[in-house]
Design goal:
alpha/beta, 8-stranded mixed β-sheet, 12 helices
Length: 321
């Protein structure tokens, strides 16, 4: 009985002990237009450890993986899970979002190139910090494209693509819109996509399509449509891991397979049951949609297990971590 009580007490104390070993520090980096703000999660360590730069996905997504459509804390949960495995992480509000809003208060000034430059600025700063042995890039969704483009210039210790598209984003949008719009409106949407792909903006946008193609977001879409994610990924040389969930309703398994075909030396991890916000969910639109606003759900354990295993194999994460 005494042994059982002791074990129970230790179990209750474990979360507190773990919290004591983590440093949650506010960070900032200077970029053209102002300062980007972020959060560093640092496990206690006696020697320098790897740090992962977490790059958020599309739209007004903040450092924690949240946006006005829902709070799920996907990137915050990922950072916490990585810390438990001995990996520090820096996650940040993109320019124009959250505490980095002042850097680009006008969304018409946003571009893929600016996002890539921002990621590079964070990496350069992290590389000067003696607490870190090396830097890993982890991009989620559209952030995977940003990570691939930044990796071409930075040569990180490793590159991880999570739920990244393998196809040009305009193609992905066409697929997502198919069957969700009446034929006349779908034809209009496809025409606008063709025009943006050609670099031409349009002021007159139907009210129903404003959320996707409002004039202020068109400069960003034009910059985004210039890139082929598979081509960008093929241009990287760092050890790479591609992760894709089988329950993702935004990005498909074939996208991961396209990325893998672009770099056959990369590792491919297909995680059964994981959706786009890194949770294990049952199939079906209703369960998927609900998880986008359930921050209390744990992220898929296999996700961080595979990342940790990959970093161990590549010598980025010491075997004793």
């Amino acid at each position: 009985m005494r042994l059982f009580l002791l074990l129970s007490l230790l179990a209750m104390l474990a979360p507190h002990a773990q919290a004591q070993t983590l440093l949650n520090q506010k960070m900032s980096v200077e970029v053209p237009g102002g300062s980007l703000r972020g959060s560093l999660l640092l496990p206690k360590a006696d020697a320098p450890i790897p740090v992962a730069l977490l790059i958020a996905g599309s739209g007004p997504t903040d450092r924690n993986g949240n946006n006005p459509m829902g709070r799920n804390d996907s990137l915050k949960r990922l950072a916490q899970a990585l810390a438990r495995r001995g990996v520090a992480s820096l996650r940040y509000d993109k320019r124009g979002i959250g505490q980095s809003q002042a850097v680009a208060s006008d969304e018409s000034l946003l571009s893929v190139e600016a996002y890539v430059a921002d990621a590079e600025a964070w990496v350069q700063q992290l590389r000067t910090d003696k607490r870190f042995s090396n830097v890993v890039l982890i991009g989620h969704s559209e952030g995977a494209l940003i990570a691939s483009l930044a990796a071409q210039n930075l040569e990180p210790a490793a590159l991880v693509s999570i739920a990244g598209s393998g196809r040009p984003i305009d193609e992905l949008l066409r697929e997502q819109l198919q069957g969700r719009l009446p034929p006349p409106l779908l034809a209009t949407a496809f025409y606008i996509l063709d025009e943006l792909k050609a670099g031409r903006m349009h002021e007159q946008i139907p009210e129903t399509l404003q959320i996707l193609f409002r004039p202020s977001v068109q400069p960003y879409l034009i910059s985004l449509f210039r890139y082929d994610p598979a081509e960008a990924f093929a241009g990287t040389t760092a050890p790479a891991l591609i992760v894709q969930g089988t329950q993702d309703i935004q990005v498909e398994r074939k996208d991961a397979e396209i990325l893998h075909a672009a770099r056959v030396d990369a590792e491919l991890a297909i995680i059964g049951g994981m959706n786009h916000v890194l949770r294990i969910t049952p199939p079906g639109q209703k369960a998927q949609t609900a998880s986008y606003s359930q921050p209390e759900l744990p992220i898929a354990h296999e996700l961080t297990d595979r990342i940790s295993q990959f970093l161990h194999e590549k010598g980025v994460l010491p075997g004793s971590s």
